[in-house]
Q: What sequence folds into this?
């Protein structure tokens, strides 16, 4: 038996057959590997090595031995950061009020246009709102003045 065959058989089955025992009696390198393997197993079985290592205590002990590094925060200089933050907040509030007023104005115009479009139905008996979806009061007055003589 060759060493490659022995190692393959030993790795696959982990048992020593008669042919494998003959090989290790003749081959010193394979016999040394088997002896190292059995010695290692016997040491593990004899509890010579601890099963667990207390990693947390070891790390905490090393941290306690190190000098404490303190990094000082840079101090703010003057009122500039406070003024900048205040101006930014004021600009945001003003923007929100402007947007709110614009939305309210657009809603009022839309409601007025819907009321004007509803007038067409009352006056003419049919709906012009599909033909003129965005009429304002001035457009409506102009339309009446052009269409009818007063």
A:
């Amino acid at each position: 038996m060759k060493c490659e065959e022995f190692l393959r058989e030993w790795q696959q089955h982990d048992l020593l057959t008669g042919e494998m025992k003959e090989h290790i009696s003749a081959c010193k390198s394979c016999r040394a590997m088997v002896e190292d393997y059995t010695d290692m197993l016997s040491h593990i079985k004899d509890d010579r090595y601890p099963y667990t290592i207390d990693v947390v205590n070891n790390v905490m002990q090393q941290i306690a031995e190190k000098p404490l590094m303190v990094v000082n925060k840079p101090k703010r200089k003057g009122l500039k950061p406070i003024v900048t933050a205040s101006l930014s907040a004021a600009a945001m509030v003003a923007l929100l009020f402007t947007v709110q007023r614009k939305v309210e104005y657009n809603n009022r115009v839309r409601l007025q246009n819907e009321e004007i479009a509803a007038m067409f139905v009352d006056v003419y008996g049919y709906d012009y709102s599909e033909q003129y979806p965005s009429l304002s009061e001035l457009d409506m007055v102009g339309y009446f003045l052009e269409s009818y003589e007063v």
About this structure: Residues 10 and 16 are 7 Å apart (CA to CA). The mean pLDDT is 77. Helices lie at 3-13, 18-26, 28-45, 55-65, 80-124, 137-147.
